[in-house]
Automatic annotation (TrEMBL):
It comes from Bacillus seohaeanensis. Belongs to the UPP synthase family. This is Isoprenyl transferase. Homodimer. InterPro entries: UPP_synth-like (IPR001441), UPP_synth-like_CS (IPR018520), UPP_synth-like_sf (IPR036424). The lineage of its organism: Bacteria, Bacillati, Bacillota, Bacilli, Bacillales.
Amino acid sequence: MLNKLKQWKRRQVSEDADERFQELKKHRIPEHLAIIMDGNGRWAKKRALPRVAGHHEGMKVVRRVTKLANQLGIKTLTLYAFSTENWKRPKMEVEYLMKLPEEFLGTFLPELIEENVQVRMMGYEEALPSHTANAVKKAIHKTKENDGLILNFALNYGSRFEIIEAMKDVLKDVQNGILEESHLNEETFSQYLMTKDLPDPDLLIRTSGEIRLSNFMLWQLAYSEFWFTDVLWPDFNKEQLIEAIEAFQGRSRRFGGLQSEES
Ligand code: IPE
Ligand code: IPE
Ligand code: MG
C-alpha cells in the first residue's frame, strides 16, 4: 500500500514537472544559460565514496541538462567544468577530471551529433594534457556543422586569465596599427574574449550552496540574472532547472534603465 502510494506520488511529481516544463516554453527562455556545476565532492562524501565518484555522477547530469536545454530552445549552454584554480587539487583528482571529457564524449558524442548539438570549448587549451585536448578537438570538429544548441565547456577557464590575455592581444593590435586606441570600447573589447561570438549569459545557475563566482565569466555576467541552489550538482534535475527558469521568467531585467511601464 505504502509502495503504491509512493509510486503514485512519484508519477504525480513527474507529471507536474512535465506540465511546468511545457508552460516554460510559452514565456521568455534564456538564450544563454551558464552553470557553475558545483558540489560533486560533497555529494560523494555524503555517500562515503571517493570524490571522483561525484564527478562521474555529475557527468551524467551534464547529459540530462544538455537534452533539457535543447528541448527548451536555449541557444547556448556554458558549463564550468574545470577552473584555472582547480589544478591545486590532488594529482589523482586532477587526472580523473582530465579523463572525464574523453569519457563523456566517448559515450555521448554520437547522441550529441544526432541532437544537432555543437560542442565548443573555452579555456587555456595549451595547458591541457594532449589526450584531453584531442578528445575535445575531435568533438568540436565532428559537430562544427551542427546548428542546434551550443554546448560550451569552460575547461581550464579562468576569467581573470581571459581578461589579461585579451588585454595583451589588444595591446599587440594597437601597436601593430590593427586597432585604434580610440576605437577601444566595451564592444570591441568583447571581441578579444573567448566568448566573442556569443551573447552574454542571461541566467547563471550555481549549485551546492556556494554564493560566489569563483573566477567565472566576470565580464560577461555583468547584467545576468543569478540563481543559486543548495542542491549538489549530481542531484540537479529537471525540477531544479524548471525552478531556475521560472525564477528567471519572473525577474525584471532593467539594465540600469526603468521597467517599460515606468518610462
Ligand atoms: C565541482 O564539484 C566540480 C569541479 C570543480 C571540477 P567540486 O569538486 O568542487 O565539489 P565540492 O565543491 O568539493 O563539493
Ligand atoms: C568552481 O568550483 C569551478 C567549477 C565548478 C569547475 P570550485 O569548487 O572550484 O570553487 P570554489 O573553490 O568553491 O570557489
Ligand atoms: Mg566545489
